[in-house]
Amino acid sequence: MPDRHASCSCGQLRLPADADPIGGAMCHGPAYQRRTGSTSGAQARFATADAEITGPSRVD
């Protein structure tokens, strides 16, 4: 199985996954553009059993 790694931009949160994604999406809508300042974003979705988020986090 593939060994995949994702992280936030500062590297504090990490998500290792040992499987292929179960889905994905590309977003380029105006709400996303206002929220991120980017023209588009891509995402991959993994089954909960195949990935685990590690590192400290907080919600402001």
Provide a quick synopsis of the model:
This protein has one helix at 30-36; strands at residues 4-7, 14-17, 23-27, 41-45.
Keywords:
two-stranded antiparallel ribbon; globular; 60 residues
- Helical content stands at 10-25%
**Overall shape:** globular
Question: Which radius of gyration do the C-alpha atoms yield?
Answer: 13 Å
Report the structural category.
mainly beta
Number of separate strands: 4
> What is the residue-mean pLDDT, rounded to a whole number?
85
Order of helices and strands: EEEHE
Strand order, sheet with most strands: 1-2
What portion of residues belong to β-strands?
A: 25-35%
The major beta sheet can be summarized as: 2 strands, antiparallel
Number of domains: 1
Question: Can you walk through the features of this model?
Answer:
The chain is 12% helix and 30% strand. With 60 residues, the protein is mainly beta. It has one domain. It has a two-stranded antiparallel ribbon with strand order 1-2. The radius of gyration is 13 Å and the shape is globular. The model has no long low-confidence stretch (mean pLDDT 85).
